Amino acid sequence: MDRMHFDANTPKVAAVVGFYMSAALVMVFVNKAVLNSSPDLPLLFLLLQLLIALLLLHVAAMFIKRVEIPKLELETAKKLTPVVLVNIIGLVFNTLCLRDVEASFFQIARGLVLPLTVIVFSAHTRTVPSVRVGIAAGTVAIGFLLGVAPSTTLPAHVAPSALSLFYGILSSLFIAFHAVLIKSSLPYCDNSTIQLAYWTNLGSAIFLFPFVLFYREIFTLEDLIHDSNWDGQVFLWGSIVTGIFGFLLCIAGLLSIKVTSPITHMFSSALRSVIQTLLGVWLFKDIMTVNRAVSILVIMIGTVYYTWVKSFEAAPPPRKDVDLEILGNRKREEDSGDDDEVTVVFGGSEEDEKV
């Protein structure tokens, strides 16, 4: 009778997956709660998140050697300006979209992230995606269209506006740009994700601050403070919580996320979508129609299929099992100048198979 084998990495995998799922859900729902209570302060709220994350990065650098604060050099700042601008513009549209749509509908409004990322990456690299990738992206796009299609069963007061959908599309587009730019920006930060996160947060805060002043959100905050009907605790604690989780996501690169497989990410992503939908209905009384449920399901299927396809395409080619006797006979019959490269498998352990 076979003994049950305990994988020592299992708790680590569970912790990493649990962290990412929890962080993503907290960011969405706490952001939504704050934006519901203070819809006129989206930019100030975002600015506070960035500043809190920067402060915590400085604190972490005092105690964690792997958290390094980069040297602020003008030349580096110029090189990182494109990725910083794309990041903050995407964050602003992301925040405005979340403010104007229901929490459960948010993943539909931003449903074009995958198709747009595939398009932007293909244009940037001048390559044509595989048929399977195209099918996955097309499936997600169909899911998006199903979700935004007009529904007679949806009350008019909760139907997403054209402007909120526009915010969602722009947010998805800038996320796609960011995914492409981040790879080319890492060399300017010594290939450190922590340093790039610091530059991104700092630059985003600098670019965002003038717009906070331009839209007079500081004066709006002052007026709300004197309004007895406004609950400032939600705004204060929401800013702190999202700032902390923003910081945690910054240092998430220190976690050994390589222990998680693409399959793990597939199911964790699918599970997160389901949990986000259920929590949206429960916490914010979101209305879930058949169209929205089918849309979320189709987007989830397309995303899971895309992850599977990419893991399949990235897998190394299978190694050749060669019969040693045949190989020996062939060597005796052929000239020794054969340049073909083969791999001889001696039936070693599973660890030996990993190259």
Ranges where pLDDT stays below 50 over 5 or more residues in a row are 1-6, 321-325, 336-355
Give the strand content. under 5%
What proportion of the residues is helical, as a percent range?
Answer: 55-70%
Largest sheet features: none
Average pLDDT confidence is: 81
- Which structural class fits the helix and strand makeup? mainly alpha
Verbal overview:
With 355 residues, the chain is mainly alpha-helical. Helices cover 70% and strands 0% of the residues. The chain has 14 helices and no strands. The protein has helices spanning 10-37, 42-63, 74-100, 106-109, 113-125, 131-148, 162-185, 193-214, 217-225, 232-250, 262-283, 290-314, 324-333, 350-353.
Which features would summarize this protein structure in a list?
355 residues; mainly alpha; 14 helices; 70% helix; disordered N terminus
SSE topology:
Blueprint: H1 10-37, H2 42-63, H3 74-100, H4 106-109, H5 113-125, H6 131-148, H7 162-185, H8 193-214, H9 217-225, H10 232-250, H11 262-283, H12 290-314, H13 324-333, H14 350-353
